[in-house]
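Dear colleague,

Thank you for sharing your sequence with our group. We've completed the structure prediction you requested, and as agreed, I am returning the results in plain text so they can be pasted directly into your records. Please verify that the sequence below matches your submission; if there's any discrepancy, let me know and we will rerun it promptly.
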Amino acid sequence: MIHSIDHNDHPGFNLLPLDLNEGVNFLIDGWVYNRGDTTRQYLRRVLEGQKVPSVGLYLNGQTVVSGAFMNINGLVGMLATSKEHQGKGYASKVMQQLLKRMALQGYIPCSAVEIHNDSSTRLHEKNGLHVSHECYLVSFNKASS
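Please find the predicted structure tokens below.
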């Protein structure tokens, strides 16, 4: 499924499902919690066969400049835009399309944002989401010997 964005404002851009190569690499390269091969395997497994909604904003059908997907918890995951394309509304286009695809597949569109990530919170609110709860996640790691 290809969705073009307004070509008058953004010629050469298309909204497409993220692919297993360019899409995965794009998300991994910009993600602060990237854990190398573990993250790559997770993303490939989630995106394989497009079982969950994902959206990439591709320049000329080849280069991802913004993207996101629905993670295994049913939340918008890893929304990112390349530095040189930030501030142009691309993350909003991706978010809008992803929320629409989630709803069309029967999921309740929802997301999670780090508590002090004000710019991401504003982006979510701009696209119809709102803060409903605060939750803190704690993870435990085995001590190395």
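Summary note from our side: The radius of gyration is 15 Å.

Kind regards,
the structure core
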